[in-house]
Amino acid sequence: MNEINSSPQREKWCGHEFLFKFRGFWFTQIYLEATKRVVETFKPLPGDVILASFPKTGTTWLKALLHSIIHPSPCHANHPLTLNHPHQLIPSLETDLYIEKWREVGGIGSTRTPQFPVVKDPEKARILSTHLPYQILGDILDSSDCKIVYVTRNPKDTLVSLWHFMQKSSVVEKDEWEMEVAVDQFCRGVVPFGPYYDHVLAYRQERFNRPEKVYFLTYEELKENPKFHVRKLGEFLGCPFDQSENGEEKIDEIVKMCSFETLSSQQVNKSNELPNVFPLPYSAFFRKGEVGDHKNYLEHKMITKIDGVTREKFHACGYMY
Ligand code: A3P
């Protein structure tokens, strides 16, 4: 039996959910199946832009920013971000394109061909996102001249954001996911797409190996200086903003349009409807959008525990996050 078909190691996660181990990382059953399909069939095109991230680190924000940088649109009522949730503009490989959309095609077990976004202008890139770690997707990403943008976030805020996200899910309705348990699982790496630390370190290493291919940024850096990163991302993606007042204005508009305040107040992002397959409404992707919110939820001993793992995993590799 080959690796793709063999029975993986499993561990109880939260509520009635189990996680399954594949190539050193943990997945829910449905995302594991989709991940295997990605590994078997996905071929990036040379111009693709791949937004990679660990869940809850700022993916939605980056989707809005990348779309606005690559497909600039004047701010008006029909702006793509007023009509669509960022996840509708940029599909994810394993949680969207390669998943069995059972609600759509009628029954688990159905398969379908991934519907990639059609880019009419050959000069424009196709933007796709993924939570898959470089350890699993790396060879595939290296097989083409695609570019990778990776966003990460402080581990404590990432965990707290994940915990809140799961509180909105039916998974924890009958079986509470206690914060202490969540901290322990996060530290051991047993969360979807975890271990978080290995995920971050591999993409960070690739940024050092090939800075022309990988742009690595943190949620906190983006909060601190969004204009700087929008300009840098424009250069990295081959669609630079000019240095004139006009270029500055365009950057200002993008930063404003993609801000937490603007996006979270759009009707489409307030919707409580369930998108296909995904168990949570789009509104769940906008909560507080702040740095340091973990202080309001983690007890001292939990902070000490996560900080200890951060020192062991990140600081030992010279990453002082
Ligand atoms: P909080 O739960 O801390 O508020 P992801 O998109 O990777 O799932 O990450 C979700 C986190 O990013 C949530 O964090 C969410 O509120 C925050 N977020 C979403 N859109 C944002 C934006 N435009 N600016 C800043 N933060 C944003």
TrEMBL record:
User: Coiled-coil annotation: which residues?
Assistant: none
Class of enzymatic activity (EC top level): transferase
According to the entry, every stretch annotated as the Sulfotransferase domain falls at: 47-317
GO MF terms listed in the record are: sulfotransferase activity
Q: What is its EC number?
A: 2.8.2.-
- Domain of life of the native organism: Eukaryota
UniProt keyword terms in alphabetical order: Transferase
Family membership: Belongs to the sulfotransferase 1 family.
State what protein this is by name.
Answer: Sulfotransferase
Q: What's the source species for this entry?
A: Sesamum indicum (Oriental sesame)
Give the taxonomic lineage as stored in the record: Eukaryota, Viridiplantae, Streptophyta, Embryophyta, Tracheophyta
